[in-house]
Amino acid sequence: xxxxxxxxxxxxxxxxxxxxxxxxxxxxxxxxxxxxxxxxxxxxxxxxxxxxxxxxxxxxxxxxxxxxxxxxxxxxxxxxxxxxxxxxxxxxxxxxxxxxxxxxxxxxxxxxxxxxxxxxxxxxxxxxxxxxxxxxxxxxxxxxxxxxxxxxxxxxxxxxxxxxxxxxxxxxxxxxxxxxxxxxxxxxxxxxxxxxxxxxxxxxxxxxxxxxxxxxxxxxxxxxxxxxxxxxxxxxxxxxxxxxxxxxxxxxxxxxxxxxxxxxx
Length: 265
Hints:
The chain is mainly alpha-helical. The chain contains eleven helices and two strands; from the N terminus they run αααααααααααββ. The protein has helices at about 5-25, 35-50, 55-70, 75-85, 90-95, 100-115, 120-145, 175-190, 190-195, 200-210, 215-240; strands spanning about 245-255, 255-265. Helix 5 crosses helix 10 (about 200-210), helix 6 (about 100-115) runs antiparallel to helix 7 and helix 7 runs antiparallel to helix 11. The termini are far apart.
């Protein structure tokens, strides 16, 4: 496939949120670049310190669902490769998960956002890039731990070598990257346009199976990881931007009155 078309496809994807932002003329705010430093430094600490019972429950549920999906690995791999292996559309969607392409483009989009006075647009672009980095680190750690062989390496979907570098099928890096890139835009700008953009990472996941690079459970796990980081970081950043995190309440008593100030982090 022509690489120039692939780059154009990814660049076009990155411009969709830009267009949506330009037509949503409703959140002009003077830029405050210190918040990006704050998020970069404090987000890892926040995530580590705020693991709840709900998070652990979701992790267990994710593990169970991945195990259940793996029962379909062999059949889905055979079908998808036979039906979609030569699809040019999926070939383009495949590149949406290529970290070497989308990481620089995502960083460039964030840099471009700083030239505007759109705080929400800046935050979405930063969160998308940050989500991509967190996802990349998470996925490649798990790849090393599980060391699962790809369909092109082994016809069995249960070939796990554990802590080896020669096998890296689980989870899918392309699928996780694509979801990590897109989900923050959906959270920041919920609507028909952004929801429809979720078809792009889904296409990436299908492309990875059709090329014989991943099993269904690989791309499913990758999608969960990318979506988790995209959603988790977006909600954190949006909550910190809410005015209701700063609560000013008047009070009265026998000895007079005053104002209580409550800041929630």
